[in-house]
Structures
1.
Amino acid sequence: MLVEKLIKEHCLSKEEYIELLDNYTADTMEKLRVEADRLKRQYYGDKVFTRGLIEFTNYCKNNCYYCGIRLDNKNASRYRLTEEEILLSCKTGYDLGFRTFVLQGGEDPYFTDDRMVEIIKEIKSLYPDCALTLSIGERSHDTYKRFKEAGADRYLLRHETANEEHYNKLHPENLSLKSRMECLYDLKSLGFQVGAGFMVGSPYQTNETLAEDLVFLKELDPDMVGIGPFLPSHDTIFADCEKGSVEKTLLLLSIIRIILPKALIPATTALGTADPKGREKGLLAGANVVMPNLSPVTVRKKYSLYDDKICTGEEAAECQGCLTRRVASVGFQLVSERGDVYRD
Ligand code: SF4
């Protein structure tokens, strides 16, 4: 009955989400998956959009407890790409057909607002037909405004958990859920296409905190939602924690597609790491984006948020070929488009 209600109303109460997550069965999952697939095709047909991910710095001033590149991890081998290397990655991607670039990095003080503005302007002037996404963490409203004015189109900032107590168990004291939420609403008010998201199965997560995530997502109404199973990094205090469940990630992907039918939802690398067919399963469960890596192969392994990350040894062209085949194997088509969010 809750499944039917979710399909009809595209939303449930917190208590109803908890009940759904507590009691789901294979049959529930399949019903939700079929509806998620129907909704995705209604807005995006059989298209899967591709984003060229450029992990341009693994320096970070923060200490998120789950993250392999957090400040206090002295074992991390640090790197920064030069502006030339970033632009070369864009060129490689453009020639392969990418029309969205994602600049992702830790919160690296070296990349000041001025430096970022210069890079954004350069990329947008060289590739005006491409969308530029930033994923560089929390900055002030004024900084986000400068990034937008320089030409950035989208911003990814996972909220990680919408439950404050849970947030505080995953992050040190200087980081707060309040500040993260403010950033997300700032980005939205500035006209960015905004992405939120969380890990499935992170330490201390419960069905109650997940239900709060779903309520929050409906309220924020982001254009993009990234979720993937929690995968431990051996260099963190959560090294011995269990991995997040692939099955539950797929269930949540379908639920999120139903809550936000037009959202752009990646089949994440974490899902592909947790299960060799994870990304294909993600596409079948409602995802419609893949994010292959355009960073130089020499630095790929160093952007190590979690252990055993896949696709760290292949050149961009190989990744693109592999993903084209994987996407086609489940009946979808990898397209060379900006892939903006569907608007009526
Ligand atoms: S999750 Fe992001 S902000 Fe936190 S330590 Fe890792 S790179 Fe830095």
2.
Amino acid sequence: MNKSTALIQNPVDDYALKRHHNFQHSLSHHPLLQLEELKKLALRSPKIRFHSAMLKRTQPFDTARELQTGMTIEETLNNIEASGSFVYLMEVEKDPLYRDLIQTIMANIEKNVHRHDSKMCKPKAWIFITSPGGVTPYHRDFNANYFFQIKGQKTLWLWDHTDREIVGQEEDEAFHGVHSLAKTLYTDEKMKKAVKYEMGPSSGAFFSYTDPHLVENGSEEVSISLSITFLTPEDYQVKRIHKINQLLRKVGIIPSDIGKSKLLNQMKLGLHWLVKHTIYLKSPDWEDA
Ligand SMILES: [Fe+2]
């Protein structure tokens, strides 16, 4: 691909990296992102998961991957129009054939991240292939996400992760502190505050770090999407503050919320460093935080 091609058009606005927004892109006709080529990638990929996509909005996200269809990956992909499946490929950036394309897209995104005085950490590429009518239930992820719709239609519902009517303080503490989605649950009430993005080929959406989302495929066509995810140093700080809050609550101290005091946040970041480098030195749960 010509590196001067504008992969993402109009990505910069006042909200970049802080709030979800949509954008346009020019990736949909790229030969490596067509279904037949992606089937070959899926069959050689060491990092692939697949399960039923015939889920309800209310399905707890953690349990979705347990819902198997009984089909092999070959059967699933060869019959993707009717297999009712969700297939996702992880670490696409490591595949020799896809490396250049993904690095070009990541470099494009990184330029935007730098424009906003931040850094891109742990960039990863994912590809999602979903049967018509598939649903990805309400959930959150530990990253920011540039989501490129390549083929088919999707309705994407997004919420602001800083809205305390949607994400409670204790939910944030469980999510960041012990990586639990147990309190991250869909309700009809939350739909009133959802922002709806109708996605088709060449549309994209940016999810800010840990924004809740729910994805519903169109009923007519197979969908292909590409996600580039990453964290920024500011995202790591948010994670660390919630993690310390979770620990404080565990020992009986009611912690102040993250938005209340910059000084307290700084103190919690110091405490995090101390705890991580002393008591929890060998715990993998603290390695990434
Ligand atoms: Fe997600």
3.
Amino acid sequence: MIMYLKAPISAWKKRKEKSNEKFFVFLFTLMGWLFLLSGDPSEATLYNNTLFKQTYPGKDAKYYTCILCHTGKIGKKGELNPYGKSLDLVLPEKLTVEKLKAVESLDPDGDGVPSGKEIEAGTLPGDPASVPK
Ligand SMILES: [Ca+2]
């Protein structure tokens, strides 16, 4: 009797294992697609930093850091300083040279100096403590 039951149980277990494998393959594929569709924030920040550098070349390498637009040293999407927020208002989508230029006349950090003048002087347009001398 036991021998008659072992075969179907073993087949059922194998089928269940294969079913679990398929489920995990499906789950990881779905997670991969969701990750690709949502976009990697650090990749976006790297793109934004490169575009900023190309738009405003000639500064010291230390100037082109995440802190230009973010509150933290490591730029995260939700942690924007006033300058980053001003760009975000203009660009719910991808950053472009036109969008960077569009906020040059704004003073998002409220230090009395427009962002364009701050960038020209090498100060931080999102930090009120950083102003041209
Ligand atoms: Ca400033």
